[in-house]
Amino acid sequence: MTETQARIGIFGGTFNPVHVGHLRAAEEVVGALHLERMIFVPSADPPHKVDIPGDRIAPARLRLKWVQLAIRDNPRFEVDELEVERGGASYSVDTLRTIGERIAPDKPVFTIGQDAFVEIDSWREPEALFDLAHFAVITRTPVALASLSDWLPRCIRNVVEPDQSGVFALHHRAGTWIRLVEIPALDISSSDIRIRLRDGESVRYLLPPAVEEAIEKSGAYRDVEGERRG
Ligand code: ATP
Fold first, then answer.
1. Mean pLDDT in the chain?
2. What do you get for the CA distance between the two ends of the chain, in Å?
3. Whose Cα sits closest to atom 20 in ligand 1?
């Protein structure tokens, strides 16, 4: 199994909202791994993120719409609505099974930030994720993931073999690989953008203009102060 055989990337996330950090990361992975396309999969209810008072998760339909707007001029980017359609809690293992069946015998490249990767043992059926997909782990500040071997999730530590480079590991039984993809850091996060929107600060250049406009029109994130008071 070589990296060149994998063609389809999957980029799951809450995208609350999508921002240029996501877009740039996806573009970097497409380039580094020579992918044909990257499929963005916005979640319905993300099991790992809680709706806290004053910081709400925008409705799935809106988050999906914003991703559609964000990627529309990139021929290598696509959006899949399957998690939003399925509704309820979104588990990546279900999504990888569904998309994996569609593209078999190819396996997708699940694209994930370091911050999420280091917590993957707490996801549903974590070991199955590494059977179903290759992994592109993208660098993201402030997590410093120098070598994959220091950070392999517990669930695969005994079955995956990292090579000397520190950026590549093979899962022989599953025929999958994990690759650390170093990207130029863009320290942008959805949570920071939500705070700025709530505080009436500028988010210009952090999001594609069409997304900024759509968020503005939707009123999402704006009324949380009122909610908190009320
Ligand atoms: P929040 O700030 O609300 O936690 P987030 O942007 O971290 O949001 P998601 O929308 O779920 O969360 O992110 C989807 C994926 O994109 C995750 O794997 C995350 O690690 C990655 N990611 C998000 N922002 C960046 C960035 N600026 N650089 C690299 N990866 C990123």
1. 91
2. 57
3. 113
Q: Which residues have CB under 6 Å of ligand 1? A: 13-16, 21-22, 25, 112-113, 115-116, 138, 140, 186, 188-191
Please name which of 194, 199, 204 lies closest in space to residue 57, comparing C-alpha atoms.
194
Residues pairing with 112 in the sheet: 137
Q: Token pair of 28, please?
A: 């970097």
Q: Which of 10, 11, 14 to mutate to test the pocket of ligand 1 (most atoms within 8 A of CB)?
A: 14
The full set of domains in the chain, from first to last, is: 8-189 (3.40.50.620)
Cβ proximity of 110 and 135 under 8 Å: yes
What pTM did the predictor assign? 0.93
Stretch among 91-100, 126-135, 158-167 having the lowest mean pLDDT: 158-167
Query: CA 218 to CA 48: how far, in whole Å?
Result: 25
